[in-house]
């Protein structure tokens, strides 16, 4: 049993319902479930009219920083889709502000950091003592937790009720966050990131250490507020060779995973284009590894080993396919998992804008139906 199972054996959610009753949390811990749990990366996003209605009146950062609105967006998406877990509405880059790094989201361009980090002095100037300022995310999680802990109309409760929604908190992984800090935004070749990683043996380790410190504090706030699981997004780790990942990123990421598990929750560690990295990612000790769609689920699971749960891995663009194709791919993933404990159905990456909402809803229904055998 991993450290991460502790909270779920002994702790109670705020309303006193054991969260081990959640099939999502059970699957993270590789315990048997009544059916495969499902949630979707970017389930609250621009493809969803309800989200766009909120976005008409608020910027992305306003939504993130206003607990009432962030909670509402989180809850609406989870309920609209009927998924087994709600991921808190926030963003990977939020910790930059208390670290002293200004950024904004420009329409159509994604995030922009105005003064990217390029020197050891700039890394030294980054602050690690103000993570408290991120507690609006924890306040939003409290609201989501209170909402889902409320007694249900049908009164179904108790330790065997696996219907309790899981609440997912999240943060970035050190490499992926460093890439935004150093490149100043999204990147194709990660030249400046890798230049620092290879060439500055003072700046890079210090940056990793500072990120781990802030991310640990941020994750702790989320767990204390009621997050059942923390997902660590290493979205761009796939840009690294295996030796580079192992030499420059594995140790700080492992440290982050261990510190979060010591808080008593399971960790899901996710990246894209990670086929070759999977065995190394497993070495972080994460309870669940997120698989992108390029590796068949059973091959991905073999690469991480049976002692670990997996999450994935439908190509999000399959949601644009006709029903017969979407249905067939959904079934293939469930058959590759073969009912083994420890599979959480998800996409291999986030839902993209323009995805038909009705297909997303159908997907969730099919997973519930086919994943119950
Ligand atoms: O339901 C959910 O998953 C929404 C919560 C969420 C957001 N960002 C809100 C958001 C989550 C889990 C994230 C994580 C995040 N943020 C990641 C990792 C996930 C991944 O896709 O790998 C990354 C890389 C970021 C950084 C980021 N935020 C980028 C690169 C962008 C621009 C790209 C885009 O899709 O526009 C964002 C903006 C962003 N964050 C949006 C949302 C819903 C869309 C923009 C908007 O509403 O204006």
The low-pLDDT segments are: 1-6, 8-18
Q: Into which percent range does the helicity of residues fall?
A: 40-55%
* Elements, N to C (H/E): HHHHHEHEEHHEHHHEHEHEHEHEH
CATH topology: TIM Barrel
Overall, the morphology is globular
Quick check: average pLDDT?
Answer: 93
Oligomerization category of the chains in this entry: single chain
User: Which CATH class applies here?
Assistant: Alpha Beta
Strand proportion, as a percent range, falls in 5-15%
Distance between the termini: 26 Å
Question: Structural class, from secondary structure content?
Answer: alpha/beta
Bound molecule kinds, no repeats? coproporphyrinogen III
CATH architecture: Alpha-Beta Barrel
- Major sheet details: 7 strands, parallel
Q: How would you write the strand order of the largest sheet?
A: 1-4-5-6-7-8-9
Over all CA atoms, what is the radius of gyration? 19 Å
Write down how many β-strands occur, each being a DSSP E stretch of 2 or more residues: 9
Brief summary:
The chain has 373 residues and is of the alpha/beta class.
Q: Which terms would index this structure?
A:
binds coproporphyrinogen III; TIM Barrel; alpha/beta; 45% helix; 9 strands; 7-stranded parallel sheet; two-stranded antiparallel ribbon; 373 residues
What report would you give on this structure?
With 373 residues, the protein is an alpha/beta fold. The protein has a single domain, classed as TIM Barrel (Alpha-Beta Barrel). 45% of the residues lie in helices and 12% in strands. The chain contains 16 helices and nine strands. The strands form two sheets. The protein has a seven-stranded parallel β-sheet with strand order 1-4-5-6-7-8-9. It has a two-stranded antiparallel sheet with strand order 2-3. The model is unreliable at 1-6 and 8-18 (pLDDT under 50). The protein binds coproporphyrinogen III. Coproporphyrinogen III (CP3) is lined by residues 41-46, 55, 60, 77, 87, 89, 91-93, 105, 110-111, 170, 186, 233, 235, 350.
